[in-house]
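Rather than argue in generalities, we have chosen a single entry, letters for residues, whole numbers for local backbone shapes, without further comment.
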Amino acid sequence: MNQDNLQQQLTYSQQFSELNQLLEQSAALWQVRAFEVNALPWAQDFPQLAEAVWALADDELDGLDAEQSLLVKALSPALSQDLRALGQDWDLSLLTASIAERTVFNNKTVTDKAGVAEPSLMDNTAAQQGGLSFDDEAHFSAHIKGRKWQQITAFVQHLPQLNLPVLEWCAGKGHLGRLIAKARGAEVVSLEWQAPLCEAGQAFADKWQLSQTFICADAFAIGAEHAATNTSITTVEHPSAANPLTTNPLTAQQQAVALHACGDLHVRLLILAAEAGTQALAISPCCYHLIQASHYQPLSTLAQQSSLKLSRHDLQLPLQQSVIANPKQQALRHQEIAWRLGFDALQRQCRQIDAYLPLPSLKQSQLSGSFTDFCLWAAETKAVNLAKNRDFEAWLEIGRQRQQLTRRIDLVAHLFRTVLEQWLILDRACFLQEQGYGVCVGEFCANSVTPRNSLILAQKMSV
């Protein structure tokens, strides 16, 4: 490992430690289940913060929640007052520092090593220069939602030019791999577990005569102990139930890519790639809470030494930012939460059990009905005897009052959502560095395109 990479590794380790310290100090403010409490659980220790959050009008909350800098500006003065009274010193500057600001995405040594390029997303010639004409782009982007296509093109523009075959992880219909095959002229293998998606993707690739082959396989069935050691992609027959793919499709001379592979799926890719010694990786993580274990399993040595114990609920915190939802969607979301809280208060009274009772997901059409209909459905679903507690309007009003509380509990927790996401991303970066990779962390698109815009680029370093 060269000196430049060692310096970068120390930087990521130091940044992780700073984030970890703040998260450990502030756990009482963000490791909270808002639906399960009836008051601000931290109000006694943070009275100024409690006063500040209750001073906010309901119609201010969504605007603050959508913009991290505004949220921090609104609440950090009160939090700072409480910290001074407690004699504590937290680094609140971390609340507004983005991963792009805290890391050196275009650090010269990493750029030179990995060939990282960052063309402007407004550069209309970028796709053409990569081998994709405007006519081709129209066909490629058909049936892909606008923001998703923006994410795919921005991701590809940030891939280093390594002239390696590519493995696309959790490919879906292979939109990302298809663009890489066309624009970069790369040989692409796309791994996806749903057979209909594989078939649709393969049909499109064949129509366009692209060097893209699909593997229909379950990522969790692939055994890391069987990591491949060959140095080229081998065309793999589509596995069947009788003959599932269990050997590692990742190889040493290969670039692995994953755009928004959820939870354990992208973690599985990191582990299998490290096992195979895969030359390069490009990963944008998503949905950290979709894990098989009840709690987060840290990857890096640093994260394993942390006192933090993250539940699936905790891991949802980074995803709790709505920059895409329109006013109608936000109104429906608030309505659903008020209804759920109203029924929760009702079921506690009926069951004489002071505990939250989770309900299954709602169809949006149910929100066009009445709260009474919702309560009857929920009671039947959870076998709750409503008995004489049928003043549904009264329970709805209780739900709305509780929603005022839960929104403010969540708002304070959201101060720390970017810190937690950066902690998770740097856990992955530090793990890769421990496995002998040079790593570069940054953002591949604007937050307005997707809040999950972090990108981890890694390349195996020479010893």
Summary: Strands lie at 166-168, 188-192, 212-216, 255-262, 280-286, 437-443, 454-460.
